[in-house]
Design brief:
Blueprint (H helix, E strand, L loop, with lengths): L2 H15 L24 H13 L5 H5 L14 E8 L4 E9 L2 E7 L4 H11 L6 E2 L7 E2 L1 H8 L3 H16 L4 E6 L1 H15 L6 E6 L7 H10 L3 E6 L25 E9 L2 E8 L23 E2 L2 E2 L11 E3 L5 E4 L4 E5 L10 E4 L4 E4 L2 E3 L1
Helix pairs in contact: 5-7
Length: 365
């Protein structure tokens, strides 16, 4: 066997041992290796990333009926309960019921591609300028906070969760988001626990930015301990707004637990590492060990496309012959399913935040 062949064999042997080194630092806080699944479930991550991708679907009819090209596969059998579109602020979320895992799923959309470059540049300059209510010294950015708390998203999401739990019982809640959607998902999960008194709330985000300081991060993980932040290779967004370790009390700080996805290998042998990071939220051996300079890595997670289907800002399409439609004066829409009806008889209903007007036909917003 030539030297190149031996090198491939040696590399393959080394790669077989790499999974054993995942989760560097696990021994530091007394967890056995087999307990690592309690921190991060690979199968669940692959399911939830598909939900996070589906929210970028432009056609709300396909999304509502769960027939879009991104709907299915690992998410087969999912039933959408509510879709919320805040056109005024270019925000979107949906709530639904999953058979596997048996849970209520809440998903928030991230930033559209045509504005992502400007949004990333803006992240460099975001200041900690809002005291988080009820937690002294906990600081967040008002833009991240307001995107969830001060728009049409919050009341519609809470209403959907409440009515679904009345029908389905005390099932777990999983909140998901990618990019800016991850920031909104984080505030939603915290809201559900602290302000709504709900239990069994899990958060998993993909490529989310930092949203608060170290005091907020500590408070957050105390309230929502079942939290995973998935990052990918050189994705630029998790590096923003910047973290300055020389000023720990004055800088943004991620909450734990990060899982860093990155490839290792030699030549054609490439192996995906899903590295479970330490409890600090800012593990220097995870995504902080590389330069965050890639938008490309931000738009693919676990092989799933996280791009929007259109470059048009807040552009959505609906077939009004399928979904009877009303819209408020600001253009904000809530598509809501009556969960009390039998599935075979269930028809979508559109509820409004304000007095709306009836529109018919097929249109693009």
């Amino acid at each position: 066997m030539d030297q190149k062949g031996w090198l491939k064999i040696i590399a393959l042997i080394l790669l077989c041992f790499l999974p054993l080194s995942q989760g560097r630092g696990l021994g530091d806080f007394g967890l056995k290796r087999e307990d690592s699944n309690q921190i991060y479930n690979k199968t669940l991550a692959r399911i939830l990333v598909e939900y996070a991708s589906a929210v970028y679907t432009m056609d709300l009819t396909e999304l509502f009926t769960w027939t879009c090209s991104r709907c299915g596969d690992l998410t087969e059998g999912f039933e959408v309960v509510e879709i919320i579109v805040d056109v005024q602020n270019c925000l979107q979320a949906y709530v639904g019921v999953s058979p596997d895992p048996n849970a209520i799923i809440i998903v928030f959309r991230g930033t559209q591609e045509n504005s992502i470059q400007n949004w990333i540049e803006d992240l460099f300059w975001k200041q900690l300028d809002l005291n988080y209510p009820g937690m002294p010294d906990a600081m967040v950015h008002h833009g991240f906070y307001s995107a969830y708390h001060n728009t049409t998203l919050r009341p519609a999401v809470l209403r959907a969760v409440e009515k679904t739990r009345k029908l389905k019982g005390d099932v777990p809640i999983i909140v998901v988001g990618h990019s800016m959607g991850g920031a909104m998902a984080s505030f939603c999960a915290l809201d559900l626990v602290v302000n709504q008194g709900m239990e069994k709330v899990k958060l998993m985000t993909f490529g989310q930015p930092r949203i608060g300081n170290a005091v907020f991060a500590s408070y957050f993980i105390e309230q929502v301990p079942d939290t995973i932040r998935v990052t990918h290779a050189h994705d630029i967004v998790p590096h923003l707004p910047p973290y300055y370790h020389y000023f720990p009390q004055k800088t943004y700080h991620h909450f734990p637990r990060e899982v860093w996805l990155h490839d290792v290998g030699l030549g054609s042998l490439v192996y995906l590492i899903e590295q479970i990071c330490d409890e600090s939220g800012e593990d220097p051996t995870c995504s902080r060990s590389v330069s965050g300079n890639s938008v490309k890595d931000h738009l693919v997670y676990l092989g799933v496309n996280m791009k929007a289907e259109t470059w048009g800002t807040c552009r959505i399409v609906m077939d009004y012959s399928v979904l009877p439609y009303q819209m408020d004066l600001a253009g904000n829409v809530v598509l809501s399913k009556d969960m009390m009806r039998k599935e075979s008889e269930s028809q979508p209903i559109i509820q409004l935040d304000k007095q709306g007007s009836r529109v018919s036909g097929t249109s693009t917003i």
